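Colleagues,

Please find the record for the two-part complex below.
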Amino acid sequence: DTGVSQNPRHKITKRGQNVTFRCDPISEHNRLYWYRQTLGQGPEFLTYFQNEAQLEKSRLLSDRFSAERPKGSFSTLEIQRTEQGDSAMYLCASSPTDYNEKLFFGSGTQLSVL
Amino acid sequence: DAKTTQPPSMDCAEGRAANLPCNHSTISGNEYVYWYRQIHSQGPQYIIHGLKNNETNEMASLIITEDRKSSTLILPHATLRDTAVYYCIVSFRYNQGGKLIFGQGTELSVKP
């Protein structure tokens, strides 16, 4: 069990550029979640996959954000035309069940938009 | 919005018990109390959860009042490695989508 892996750990980009983050969940965890966390705040839910199906999206997920989970394995989160307000920590979590005590988080990708 | 209220920060001496309070006066009958913590530069980590009985595991104890409107997380012998933000979350156990709603949490500083 190597845990949830997120890459890159840090990303610096210029406003208007596109960025993509990757999350590799724990093997055989069929549920995968993306959260966003800004400084001093708790994580905020963005979206949720069960296998390859994206089942729920938060209102926080604007049209510039898209997430995929091809074949129900790793997931990617893409932000198009980044804005300074997108600067945050993007956290991925995976779970083998829908029980809340079974969420395992990665260490996140810290995005800085200049 | 988060359904819980926690103090923004607390200090604790190393080796002493850390008692972290949480108010959840609007909790419904089927909702559980969950505690997660987040050490700096890491993702949140599950600690413990409970419905109405007190719970204990290798990490902590959870004391829930009889009316279930508040709870306390107890770290019996705090170490420097317990310095983290602690989140108290109220949620149904089976949460389709698993979207736990985190508040701002309590920043616990364990001091030598």
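Chain A has no helices and eleven strands.

Comments are welcome before we finalize the supplementary table.
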